[in-house]
């Protein structure tokens, strides 16, 4: 996760309705202190099975590339066609690129990616169920106004540490919309917590809560307040 300069932005997936949080995104948000969240976007993802021009039928497919989430989101549907040889790659767009260069290969990707790399779409709407992905817009600018706020923190490794932090949100009647733990890369069997809650950094109750948890955490990373953008284009993301 890299933002090249102060005026650049990026768009990355953070959560999927089937697979849950995107670990790579969370870990990079925790790693890079100068990256903040400005907006969120929800989009229904419609996956296709796109193939190299050498493929004339499903029986010709030898390998299928895609992101691990996309594989898990369509594995049941594709198993009905006896397609089980999956290779995970970093993104669905990368999968389409690989499929464009390798004979008898395929990609699970968006219609946009298939068209971009001149692949043939063999199957449409291969999702096992409704698939919505939440994306975030990131930059080096901390925003303080919006509907929700994100923070990440660590607590002392002793009983009640997490409870004491969450209690402050309860006392100030701040609604938590997401809490998730991820392992610290540097210390085995210890974790950081990812938290989203309703409210913004200019809200007095939020300010009071953050002030009170300062002495309860060992690390606190405020990733910004953000609002939801309405996304209308149909096939670009994913």
TrEMBL record:
Domain ACT: 150-227
Single Gene Ontology MF annotation: prephenate dehydratase activity
Top-level taxonomic group: Archaea
GO cellular component term of the entry, any: cytoplasm
Residue stretches making up the Prephenate dehydratase domain: 1-140
Keywords in alphabetical order: Amino-acid biosynthesis, Aromatic amino acid biosynthesis, Lyase, Phenylalanine biosynthesis
Pathway in which the depicted protein is active: Amino-acid biosynthesis
Protein name: Prephenate dehydratase domain-containing protein
Species: Sulfurisphaera javensis
Source organism phylogeny: Archaea, Thermoproteota, Thermoprotei, Sulfolobales, Sulfolobaceae
């Amino acid at each position: 996760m890299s933002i090249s300069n102060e005026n650049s932005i990026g768009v990355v997936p953070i959560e999927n309705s089937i697979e849950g949080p995107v670990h790579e995104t969370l870990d990079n948000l925790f790693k890079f202190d100068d990256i903040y969240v400005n907006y969120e976007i929800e989009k229904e993802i419609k996956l296709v099975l796109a193939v190299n021009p050498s493929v004339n039928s499903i029986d010709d497919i030898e390998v299928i590339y895609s992101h691990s989430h996309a594989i898990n989101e369509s594995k049941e549907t594709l198993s009905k066609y006896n397609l089980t040889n999956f290779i995970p790659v970093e993104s669905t767009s990368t999968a389409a690129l690989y499929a464009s260069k390798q004979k008898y290969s395929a990609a699970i990707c968006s219609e946009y990616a298939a068209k971009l790399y001149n692949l043939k779409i063999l199957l449409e709407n291969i999702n096992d169920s409704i698939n919505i992905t939440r994306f975030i817009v990131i930059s080096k600018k901390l925003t303080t106004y919006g509907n929700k706020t994100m923070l990440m923190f660590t607590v002392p490794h002793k009983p009640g540490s997490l409870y004491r932090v969450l209690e402050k949100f309860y006392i100030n009647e701040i609604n938590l919309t997401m809490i998730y733990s991820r392992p610290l890369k540097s210390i085995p069997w210890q974790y950081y917590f990812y938290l989203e809650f309703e409210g913004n950094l200019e809200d007095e109750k939020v300010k009071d809560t953050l002030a009170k948890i300062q002495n309860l955490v060992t690390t606190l990373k405020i990733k910004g307040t953000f609002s939801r953008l309405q996304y209308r284009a149909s096939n670009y993301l994913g």
